[in-house]
User: Fold this.
Amino acid sequence: MLSGTPPSIKRLIEELKRLPGIGDRNAERLAFHVLGAPAERAEALARALVMMKKTVRDCRRCYNLTEEDLCGICRDPNRTEGILCIVQTARDLLAIEGTGQYKGRYHVLKGVLSPMRGIGPEDLTVQALLARIGEEGIKEVILATNLNVEGEATASYLLAALKPLGVKVSRIARGIPIGGSLEHADAVTLGLAIDGRKEL
Amino acid sequence: MRMDWVEPDRFRNLHRQKIHLHPRFNLVYGPNGQGKTNFLEAVACLGSLRSFRTAGKNDLIRHGEEMCRVSGRLLWAESERILSISLDQRGRSQFIDDRRIASPEEYLRSVGAVHFIPEDVGMVGGPPSWRRRILDRAVFETRPGYPSEYRRFLSALRQRNALFRKARPSAEEREGWDRALAETGSWILKRRMDLLGTLNREMAALGEILELGEGLHLRYTPSFEKVPGGSAIGNIPWMEHYETTGRSREALAEGILEGLFREREREKRSGHTLVGPHRDAVQFLLEGSGGPVDLARFGSQGQKRAAVLALKLALVREVARAREGEWPLVILDDVSSELDEARKKALTGIIREFGAQFLLSATKDRDLFFPEGEGIAWRVQAGALQRTA
Assistant:
């Protein structure tokens, strides 16, 4: 950036660079794009950013994102009662919703266990989850944490914590991605895919 | 798989020279300090991305230069590749056919062609981590998915160790990390044991040829089978000979889990994970008339040398088998000077049977490995290689 650039443009560029995936070149492009656009576009963008931060919060029950007390899924009377899908983040929830395969409700953990980063069950929404099992008469729980080491350890932890409550606990299946080829799958994935085979 | 030519450039004391290698036997000889081992090291760096001596790049770059490079042409079956590595102050870069390969793993998968066999007799009696590392490298070369399995295990191990710093983790939280360690660790165990199943047969055969007597093998004892409270090595009753192969991955995971449970109190005191593939014992054993003999405790220097050589040669065979008969390039640095006459002869016999390309160094004995018409010899003086045969 040339030293002749006005400070307000520099400031915007610096802010944009904090966003994931935005480097120097992209930040400059975006800043100059906004500069060249009509004033109302810039104001709309700024308002949208501020509004989002002000109004979006966690759902009181499941910790999904919402602007109300309860999120759209918790308020939906057509969702199947008695089944919960446990996810790490609200984005994971969106991914599962995108499949259209699941009709039950969710619980967002807001993270995974990681002793190295000092994250234990008390830093996740586990207490709220355990309370919901009794309050909502939950019969089945699907553990949909990631399939990396932290996600697996969190799933094992939840299995141990949920067992005394007498609910059915399942884990999302692991295997080869659709469109993926076997020769590029790692051995662990392939092994699990064999273990989880289905009769045709 | 073989190297057609190699060209060191500003690498230690070596002259910039394109050396055309023989498909079978290549011998560099001459007095010490002239650059024999430097030449072997240049080829090893090109093929394995690591030096078998000091690791510092500043030692590899010739004094007064900014960078160094080694290039070479690798041939196998019906294809060829130009390899090149360069080192400068910022680090190492590797290239295949002039394309920069960012990931060392990817480079090694495409090349993975060089086996250096060092004189580290210390491996027999040294810390068990040395012997585990040898096994892990061999698994890596025969199973491309192993590094990612290993990283998963290390990540579970670090997380679990971090849990010891927490004041009062719940039983459920501990169980979560116990299972993560057992799951990821059991894959490592299974891979090592699968390798040992075939490796031990090979080692026994080579051990006999190298006059070690019968039944040379590596005994692998998982940490969950060690005597509680015992040290890593030397505390295992000979009678409880561990059957290295044939256990399912699930059974191994269960074994680790039970071991973690048993060692809970000791772990709490030490603040470290005491059960898992990072604590397993590997021993060099010979079958004696009175039962197996631990070479670390009862082996002579000569026996230890021969045992390490047998292991390394068995690994070369194993790699060739895993690569469907494609032999790696084998580098032997001054190996004959450490063996007695009978074993030297035996070694010569073995390597003539191997289909691999060999790169050897010697101070004397220059005729030993050198079948008529099957190789090239160079005399090395002040960093220059001069062909003599």
About this structure: The CA atoms of residues 133 and 266 of chain B lie 26 Å apart. Residues 228-244 of chain B have pLDDT under 50 and may be disordered.
